[in-house]
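Colleagues,

For the teaching module next term, I've prepared a clean inverse folding example: a structure given as tokens, and then the sequence designed for it. I'd like students to try predicting residues themselves before seeing the answer, so please don't circulate the second half yet.
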């Protein structure tokens, strides 16, 4: 365990995983060993550059199994629901991600980080009212949570409620004249609403009297001064924000913008290159770098950056369309409209053909409308990328059973229980399938196991 932790600190993920796995072999009841295995798989997936590869999804699925096993062994492990939330987010299962973040908030309601994670997950699924509430609660707990404030701004704008927020935060600032949070929120919303810049500056300056190290306040002041044409002052505010929170790409992007406006091309290029190390897929950064390079006479390099900008912008547009169609397809499926779900999910797959989560939902939807061959094909496509997913094997088994394919259905359910031995519903379904195909002894064993785990009571049979 200690050697694995030391290796993980140096981001030697595979050697670290080997040590944690060895620790699990020595003590299979060690929740900490399973926990560290799960976190290592999560870190390996996060470090992957190819988010469509079989290895990427295998790491996520193995991470889910390890963290779920750790949770069963010790429900009090620190931040385990947060890590499961992050893992499900990477898989593309936003409902499970939100559910895990909710549990983390229930367990630690005083954690700004947990509230921020839940807010982000809710915003990604369009639940803006609740996400705004989470961000506001997080800021009340931690005024210095930069990402909480910037995420709050994004949720309000995507919600289309900027002017309503102006009125609400104005009232809060007047009713709580000594509250730094109230003044910070009012200054933020005035900045993005482009309403009263002088008042916005006054409110942000007031919040900085209480806490000088509010990176977001300096950032918004930079935005206001740049809008007023005071580039030198804006540059100073952006630099203060970056000094407090050096890893934010949006702060570096803003600084590069004002440096370009000041004709400080060399400084702008250095800032943009630093930002691109952190976010190489950001089209805005590549576009600005192309402008810098063009100004400095590097025409060939500038042309390459413009080509990359166009490629990344198209990829962003395709990703946005993909997410819209996937989310619409899932919503249609859950509301019982399988026909529309199939159409939406097929559109999503046209943009990202090998996406396992989309193929998984398409398999369910096609099964619902009676397209057994299409359903099987979609499930198999999903399993090519996620062969260790108990959820996909289980649903494929249920779909096959509905189609009268008892032998392959039983094989899929067996695979489910092998991957996730504590899955009560899978043991129940497998037991019933075995009983109905004449294998009474094994079927009864599976039913008994399901009952031990809390499922398959008499009424279910």
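(Answer key — instructors only)
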């Amino acid at each position: 365990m200690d050697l694995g932790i030391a290796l993980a600190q140096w981001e030697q993920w595979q050697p670290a995983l080997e040590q944690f796995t060895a620790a699990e072999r020595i003590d299979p009841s060690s929740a900490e060993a399973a926990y560290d295995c799960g976190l290592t798989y999560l870190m390996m997936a996060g470090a992957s550059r190819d988010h469509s590869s079989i290895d990427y999804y295998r790491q996520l699925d193995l991470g889910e199994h390890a963290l779920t096993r750790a949770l069963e062994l010790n429900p009090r492990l620190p931040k385990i629901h947060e890590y499961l939330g992050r893992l499900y987010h990477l898989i593309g299962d936003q409902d499970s991600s939100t559910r895990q973040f909710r549990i983390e908030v229930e367990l630690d309601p005083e954690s700004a980080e947990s509230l921020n994670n839940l807010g982000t997950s809710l915003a990604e699924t369009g639940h803006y009212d609740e996400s705004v509430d989470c961000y506001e609660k997080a800021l009340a707990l931690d005024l210095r949570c930069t990402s909480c404030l910037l995420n709050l701004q994004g949720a309000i704008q995507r919600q289309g409620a900027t002017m309503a927020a102006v009125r609400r935060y104005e009232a809060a600032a007047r009713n709580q004249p000594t509250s730094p949070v109230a003044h910070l929120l009012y200054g933020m919303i005035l900045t993005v609403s482009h309403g009263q810049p002088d008042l916005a500056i006054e409110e942000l300056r007031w919040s900085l009297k209480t806490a000088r190290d509010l990176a977001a306040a300096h950032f918004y002041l930079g935005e206001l001064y740049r809008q007023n044409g005071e580039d030198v002052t804006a540059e100073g505010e952006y630099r203060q924000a970056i000094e407090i929170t050096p890893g934010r790409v949006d702060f570096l992007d803003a600084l590069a913008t004002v440096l370009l406006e000041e004709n400080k091309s060399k400084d702008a290029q250095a800032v943009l290159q630093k930002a691109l190390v952190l976010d190489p897929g950001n089209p805005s950064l590549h576009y600005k770098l192309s402008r810098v390079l063009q100004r400095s006479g590097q025409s060939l390099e500038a042309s390459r950056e413009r080509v990359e900008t166009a490629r990344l912008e198209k990829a962003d547009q395709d990703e946005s369309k993909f997410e819209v169609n996937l989310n619409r397809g899932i919503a249609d499926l859950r509301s019982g409209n399988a026909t529309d779900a199939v159409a939406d999910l097929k559109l999503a797959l046209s943009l990202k053909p090998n996406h396992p989560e989309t193929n998984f939902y398409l398999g369910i939807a096609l099964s619902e409308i009676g397209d057994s061959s299409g359903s099987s094909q979609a499930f198999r496509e999903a399993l090519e990328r996620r062969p260790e997913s108990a959820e996909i094997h289980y649903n494929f088994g249920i779909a096959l059973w509905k189609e009268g394919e008892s032998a392959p259905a039983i094989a899929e359910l067996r695979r489910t229980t092998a991957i996730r031995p504590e899955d009560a519903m899978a043991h129940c379904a497998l037991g019933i399938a075995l009983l109905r195909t004449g294998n009474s002894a094994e079927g009864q064993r599976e039913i008994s196991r399901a009952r031990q785990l809390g499922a398959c009571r008499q009424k279910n049979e």
